[in-house]
Amino acid sequence: MPSKNNSDQDIHAAAADLYGNNVQKNTPDQRELEAHVLLKSAKFLNDIQKDWDNTTPEILEETLKYNRQIWMMFYDTAIENTEGDRPNDLRSNIINLANFVFKRELEILGVPSKEKLNVLISINREIAAGLMASNNEEQSTTSKNKDNQDTKKPPHDGSLKTSA
User: I need a labelling partner for 36 at 20 to 30 A (CA). Which of 1, 51, 123, 125 fits?
Assistant: First the structure.
């Protein structure tokens, strides 16, 4: 008879596996998540631009802070992840783009103008589109590889077995 301790471990292991599988199925890919966050920020910036006359300095500052936090994550990841799957030129481009975003936000805070938001909105949308496109390409490649594996059936001997 298995001990109660082993049984508890089995139950917990099964629960952890079930949870892990559920998370994988229901959690978006990292690129997809990053794209959605960028699009959300672009929407916030666009909303401020459309309602510029009713936008307070506090609302502008909070919205830019939200955008800056997103770009800080990209910046930090590019700086810290030197051995990751990103080539050095891509890491460098991310750092340069983040620095541009930070600089532009300071310009906007210094001398607010709704036109200055255009470039931030555009950058967020374009990067999001690129993240989603690369994610779709990766999923398509993975799906094609899986389909190719699924279609590799054992050779058929040519005979058909039928019952009379």
Answer: 51
